[in-house]
Design brief:
The complex is a heterodimer of chains A (636) and B (346). Chain A has 636 residues and is an all-alpha fold. Chain A contains 21 helices and 8 strands. Chain A has a domain of 59 residues. Helix content of chain B is 54%, strand content 14%. In chain B, strands 1, 2, 3, 4, 5, 6 and 7 form a 7-stranded antiparallel sheet that branches. Classes of the chains: A mainly alpha (636), B alpha+beta (346).
C-alpha cells in the first residue's frame, strides 16, 4: 500500500492497521456527523430511512382512519394533527371535533406516503444503508472508493428530506398529485401560491436532490465493487447480496436521470411557465390556462415510468440479496443455483428497462405497442421465478435454524410470491384495463414491497445489527415482532385484492361510501365498505406490532447480548472484521480463497468455512481472534 | 486509511478509481441528456405543422461557439499530454486556454444569444384569424410551394395599445417608472374610440420590451388591445422565396410596422422559454449544458490555481485529475455537437 504514492500514504497505513489506538482521534462532528466512513454513512442512511419509513406509515394510518370512518375526526390526536399540519389538511368534522382529514389533506398524505415510502424509506434503507454498511465489508475493502462523494451523497439526500418535510407546512400543504405527479394536474397544482414556496414545487426540488444523491451513491457502489475487491475475491466469489447491490446501482445510475430530466421539465412548467406537459387548449376551472400549449402530458408518463419501473427492481433486488444471505446462513447450505441467480438479476435488470409502458395501458397506446410491452412484462417473470425458486430450493433438506432474521427471510418468500403472481393479471392489457387504479393494484405492489422488501429489510437489520453495534437484538421481542407483523400485514393487504376486484378505486377519499356498487358488493360475507374497517384495524395493530421492534432496536444498543466477530457462524468476509468494525474495517489483510457459501462442506472441521480461511489448514473459528492479533503484531 | 488504486491502476481491471467513476458518471449523464433529447423529439414530432420554428437562432454565433468548444477539447488533451511529459509550464498554459475557451463560450451565450431572445417578440395568430393577416403570414404562397403554414408574426415590439377601465393613475405611474410614453387617441384607433391609449418607449428604438408589456397587462383595469411590431423579414415579405428557408446570417427586424389585434392572438410573448415548446426545450437543454460548462470551468480553475501542490508531490495524480476533467469536458463538448444541429440547423 505504501507503493501508492500519495502525500497521505504513510498516515493512511497507520489508519488501516491501528484504528484501535488512533493517534489523532477525529472530533465528534467528523466522526459521527460529517463522516466519510462508509459504516457511519450507512447507519445515517439507515436511521433517516427508518424514521421516514415510520413517518410514511403514520401518514397511511391517518388515511386509513378516514377510509374506514369517512368524515369523522381522528380520535385523540385529531386536535394535535390539525394544529401541526394546519387547516389545509385537517378541518373540524360535522360534530365539531377538530382533526378530520380534508380531501386536499388526504391527497397530500397519499402522495407523500408513496413518495416517502419509495424514495425516502425503502431505497435509502435497502440500497443505501445496507449497501454502504455491508458491501465494502463483504468484499474486504477498507471503505468506498470515493468516501467524500459518499458523504456528499448522504447530505444531498438529507437536503431532499428537508425539502419534503417543510413542504407539509407551506401554504396549501404538501404535494397532492400522487407520487407519480402526473401533469397537467401536477402542473397546475398549487398555482395559487408563491412560485417556489408550495408543495408541488418543493416536491420537485426535493426529488432533484434525491436523484443527485442516488447518482453519487450508485457511482460509488459500482466503482467500489469493481475496484476494491480484496485479493482472491473474484467475481464468482462475491456474495449474492453484493451482486444484487451491483445490479441495483446500475439501475439507479441509468434509470434515474430520465426522471431528473422530467423533473426539470416540470419545474420549468411551474416556475418558468413553459409547456412541456401542457397540452394546447387546456382549460382549468372554466378559464383557458395561461400556458402556450403544445406540450404532451404523455411525455411525463414515459419519462416517469422509464425510471419508476426499474425502480421497482431497485426496491426488490437488495431485499432478495439480503434474504439470500440470511437463508444460506440459516439453512447451513450454499444457495442453490448461485450462477443462475446472478444471471437472472442481470436479465431482470435489462428487461426492466423495456417494460415501462405497462403502467400506461389506459393511455390508449394501441394494440401493437401494448402487445410489445405485454410480452416483455411477461418475460420478466422468468428471471423473477428463477430467483424465487432458487431460494425455495435452498430450503430443501436444510437443517434450518429459525433465528429471527431467518423467520423474516422465510416469510419473504411466499409474500413476495403472492406479490409477484398477482402482478400477472396487471401485465395483460385486457385484464389491466379492468383492474387499473383499483385496490387490486395497491395490494399487488404492497405485497411486493411491504411484506416483501420490508420483511427482507427486517431480516437484514436483525442479521447485521450485531456487526454494527457489537450486540444482538433480543430474540423474544424479535419473534413477537415477526409473528404479529406477519399476521396483521396479511389481514391488511389480502382484503384489498377483494375490494379491488369489486371495483374500489384507489383514490376514493371516503373509501367508496358514496358509491352504491361498492356497498352492495359482497365478498366473503362482507360488503366492500365493511372490509375498510377490517383493513384499518389491521393497520393500527400492525403499527402496534412495531413497538417491540422499536424498543428492541434502541434497548439492545446498550443492553443487548454482547457478541464476538461472527455470531451467526457465517462464511462471508464481513464477519472477519471486529464488531463494530473500526475506521478502515479490517485489522488484518484480507485474502479470499473460496466461494461465499461454503456451509456444511463434507470433511471440514466446522459446518462453515469462511471465505478468508486459507485452503490448506482450515482452523476452528474460536482461534480467529488470536491469529488476528498476531497478524496485527506482524504488521507493525 | 488509504483507499487503494487512487493513482495506480488495479492490475485486473486496468483502471484507477476516478477513471472508472467518471465513466460511470458520464453513463448517467448520457441518460440525463438522453431524457432531455427524447423530450425534444417528443415535442418536435408532436408539434402541429407550422408550430415548430426554423432559423430563429443566430447560426454564425453558434458556429463560432462550436469552434471554441472544440478548440478547448484539444487544449485539455494537450494539458494532459504535457503533464504526462512532466512539462508543468506548458500544461498550465493549455489549461488556462481551456478555461478561457469555456468562459468565452459562456460569455457569448449570455451576452449575445440569450438576451436577444428576451427582447424579441412573437405572437401566434389564432387559426380562424390567419386570413386577416395574410399579408404578414403568406400562407397562400406557402401552400402553393408546399411549405409549412405560418401562424406566428414576430419582430420588435414598438408599441402596445391598451384600454383602461376605471382609474388611469396606476398605468401613468407605471409608464413613468418604466420610461414609457402614453399617447391618447392614437391614429387608427376608431374601434375603441376614446378609450384607446398607445404606449410606446420614450426612446423610440427601445420600444416596449415584452417583459414590460406583460407587467402592464397585470395592472388592474388594463387590457392589451393591439400590438405594434416592426416585422422580421419573414413576416415583412412572406411571399419572397428568399424567406422560404432560414438565413445563415442573422436578419434584423425591418422598418415595416404591423398592428395586430390582441383578440386574434392565441399566445404572445418574448422568445422566452414559455413562448413555445421550441424555446422551452432550447433554453432547458442549452441552460443545463451551460451549467455543465460552468462546472467544468470551476473544476479546471481549481486545478489551475491549486494543482501545483499536488503536482510537486505526485505528478501522476495531477495528470489523472486532468484526465478525469478532460473526459468530462469532452462529454460536454459532445453534447454541444448534438445541441448545435438540432436547434440551430434543423
Amino acid at each position: 500500500m505504501a507503493a501508492i504514492t500519495s502525500p497521505h500514504a504513510h498516515e493512511g497505513d497507520a489508519h488501516l492497521h491501528a484504528h484501535d489506538d488512533d493517534h489523532h482521534e477525529l472530533g465528534f462532528w467528523q466522526k459521527y456527523i460529517f463522516s466519510t466512513d462508509h459504516k457511519v454513512i450507512g447507519i445515517q442512511y439507515g436511521l433517516t430511512g427508518l424514521a421516514f419509513l415510520f413517518f410514511g406509515f403514520c401518514l397511511m394510518l391517518v388515511m386509513r382512519w378516514q377510509l374506514a370512518n369517512p368524515g369523522q375526526a381522528v380520535p385523540m390526536i385529531g386536535g394535535a394533527l390539525q394544529s401541526i399540519f394546519g387547516t389545509a389538511a385537517f378541518a373540524a368534522s360535522e360534530t365539531g371535533a377538530p382533526g378530520m382529514l380534508t380531501a386536499d389533506g388526504y391527497n397530500a398524505f397519499g402522495a407523500m406516503h408513496g413518495t416517502i415510502m419509495v424514495f425516502f424509506g425503502i431505497v435509502p434503507i435497502a440500497f443505501a444503508a445496507f449497501g454502504n454498511f455491508v458491501v465494502p465489508l463483504q468484499i474486504g475493502a477498507p471503505d468506498m472508493t470515493f468516501p467524500k462523494i459518499n458523504m456528499a451523497s448522504y447530505w444531498c439526500f438529507f437536503i431532499s428530506c428537508i425539502f419534503m418535510l417543510i413542504s407539509f407546512f407551506v401554504p396549501g400543504g404538501a404535494a397532492k398529485s400522487g407520487w407519480t405527479s402526473y401533469p397537467p394536474l401536477a402542473g397546475i397544482a398549487d398555482s395559487a401560491f408563491l412560485t417556489f414556496w408550495n408543495g408541488q414545487t418543493l416536491w420537485l426540488t426535493g426529488m432533484v436532490f434525491n436523484i443527485t444523491a442516488s447518482l453519487l451513491g450508485s457511482v460509488n457502489f459500482i466503482a467500489t465493487i469493481i475496484q476494491l475487491r480484496a485479493p482472491g475475491m473474484t467475481w464468482m466469489r462475491l456474495p449474492f447480496f453484493v451482486w444484487a447491490q451491483f445490479v441495483t446501482a446500475f439501475l439507479l445510475l441509468l434509470a434515474f436521470p430520465p426522471l431528473e430530466a422530467a423533473g426539470i421539465f416540470q419545474l420549468m412548467d411551474r416556475v418558468a411557465g413553459t409547456s412541456f406537459f401542457m397540452p394546447t387548449g387546456l382549460v382549468v376551472n372554466g378559464n383557458v390556462a395561461p400556458w402556450a400549449g403544445g406540450g404532451s402530458p404523455l411525455l411525463w408518463q414515459h419519462l416517469f415510468w422509464f425510471l419508476a419501473h426499474p425502480e421497482v427492481y431497485v426496491l426488490i433486488l437488495p431485499g432478495i440479496g439480503m434474504v439470500a444471505e440470511v437463508i444460506a446462513n440459516n439453512t447451513r447450505k450454499p444457495i442453490y443455483g448461485y450462477k443462475a441467480m446472478v444471471g437472472a438479476i442481470f436479465v431482470l435488470a435489462f428487461l426492466s428497462f423495456v417494460v415501462w409502458a405497462h403502467h400506461m395501458y389506459m393511455t390508449g397506446m394501441g394494440a401493437a405497442v401494448a402487445a410489445f410491452f405485454q410480452t416483455t412484462t411477461i418475460m420478466i417473470s422468468i428471471p423473477s421465478v428463477i430467483l424465487l425458486t432458487a431460494l425455495m430450493i435452498t430450503l430443501w433438506g436444510g437443517s434450518i435454524r429459525f433465528t429471527v432474521p431467518m423467520l423474516f427471510a422465510a416469510a419473504f418468500l411466499p409474500m413476495f410470491g403472492i406479490g409477484g403472481l398477482t402482478g400477472i393479471p396487471l401485465a395483460f392489457n385486457a385484464t389491466d384495463l379492468y383492474l387499473h387504479d383499483t385496490y387490486y393494484v395497491i395490494a399487488h405492489f404492497h405485497y411486493v414491497v411491504a411484506p416483501g422488501t420490508i420483511f427482507a429489510i427486517f431480516a437484514g437489520i436483525y442479521y447485521w445489527y450485531p456487526k454494527a453495534t457489537g450486540r444482538q437484538l433480543n430474540e423474544l421481542l424479535g419473534q413477537i415482532h415477526f409473528f404479529a407483523s406477519l399476521i396483521f400485514i396479511n389481514v391488511l393487504f389480502m382484503p384489498m385484492f377483494l375490494q379491488g376486484m369489486a371495483g374500489m378505486h384507489r383514490r376514493w377519499y371516503d373509501g367508496g361510501a358514496q358509491y352504491e356498487q361498492l356497498s352492495k358488493a359482497v365478498v366473503l360475507g362482507h360488503t366492500g365498505l365493511e372490509w375498510n374497517t377490517v383493513i384499518s384495524t389491521a393497520a393500527y395493530l400492525l403499527c402496534l406490532a412495531q413497538v417491540p421492534f422499536i424498543f428492541n432496536f434502541f434497548w439492545s444498543m446498550k443492553f443487548g447480548k454482547k457478541i464476538g466477530r461472527n455470531p451467526w457462524d457465517s462464511t462471508t468476509v464481513e464477519w472477519d472484521a471486529p464488531s463494530p468494525p473500526g475506521h478502515g474495517n479490517f485489522d488484518k489483510p484480507i485474502s479470499v480463497h473460496r466461494g461465499p457459501y461454503e456451509y456444511s462442506v463434507p470433511g471440514a472441521d466446522a459446518d462453515f468455512t469462511p471465505q478468508t480461511d486459507p485452503p490448506a489448514n482450515s482452523k476452528a473459528p474460536d482461534q480467529d481472534a488470536n491469529t488476528n492479533s498476531q497478524s496485527v503484531e506482524k504488521q507493525h | 486509511m488509504q483507499i487503494p488504486y487512487e493513482v495506480t491502476s488495479r492490475p485486473d481491471t486496468g483502471l484507477w478509481n476516478a477513471k472508472l467513476g467518471i465513466w460511470l458518471f458520464l453513463a448517467s449523464e448520457v441518460m440525463l441528456f438522453g431524457g432531455l433529447f427524447s423530450g425534444y423529439l417528443f415535442l418536435r414530432l408532436g408539434a402541429e405543422d407550422g408550430y415548430w420554428p426554423h432559423g430563429l437562432l443566430n447560426v454564425p454565433i453558434g458556429t463560432f461557439n462550436t469552434a471554441v468548444l472544440i478548440a478547448s477539447s484539444v487544449t485539455i488533451v494537450l494539458t494532459w499530454a504535457n503533464l504526462k511529459m512532466r512539462n508543468w509550464v506548458m500544461a498550465q498554459r493549455y489549461l488556462l486556454t481551456t478555461i478561457l475557451c469555456g468562459l468565452l463560450f459562456l460569455f457569448i451565450k449570455l451576452v449575445f444569444e440569450y438576451p436577444e431572445k428576451f427582447a424579441h417578440f412573437g405572437a401566434y395568430i389564432k387559426k380562424e384569424s390567419t386570413a386577416k393577416y395574410e399579408a404578414y403570414l403568406g400562407n397562400e404562397h406557402a401552400r402553393s410551394n408546399g411549405l409549412s403554414p405560418r401562424y406566428e408574426i414576430s419582430g420588435h415590439l414598438e408599441a402596445v395599445e391598451v384600454t383602461v377601465a376605471g382609474d388611469r393613475a396606476p398605468l401613468a405611474t407605471f409608464a413613468e417608472k418604466n420610461k414609457l410614453k402614453l399617447v391618447e387617441h392614437p391614429a387608427g384607433g376608431e374601434g375603441h374610440g376614446a378609450n384607446l391609449i398607445k404606449v410606446e418607449g420614450l426612446d423610440h428604438k427601445a420600444g416596449v420590451s415584452p417583459a414590460k408589456m406583460e407587467k402592464m397587462a397585470r395592472i388592474p383595469g388594463v387590457t392589451i388591445e393591439k400590438f405594434e411590431l416592426a416585422l422580421d423579414p419573414g413576416n415583412a415579405d412572406p411571399s419572397n422565396p428568399a424567406n422560404d428557408r432560414p438565413h445563415f446570417w442573422h436578419q434584423h427586424a425591418t422598418d415595416k410596422i404591423a398592428t395586430i389585434d390582441a383578440k386574434d392572438v392565441s399566445w404572445a410573448s418574448s422568445f422566452a422559454p414559455k413562448h413555445s415548446s421550441y424555446f422551452a426545450i432550447y433554453f432547458t437543454i442549452t441552460g443545463l449544458h451551460g451549467l455543465h460548462v460552468l462546472g467544468g470551468v470551476i473544476v479546471m480553475a481549481y486545478f489551475y490555481l491549486y494543482g501545483g501542490k499536488l503536482y510537486r508531490k505526485n505528478p501522476e495524480h495531477q495528470a489523472n485529475r486532468i484526465e478525469v476533467v478532460g473526459l468530462f469536458w469532452h462529454f460536454v463538448d459532445l453534447v454541444w455537437i448534438f445541441v448545435f444541429p438540432i436547434f440551430y440547423l434543423l
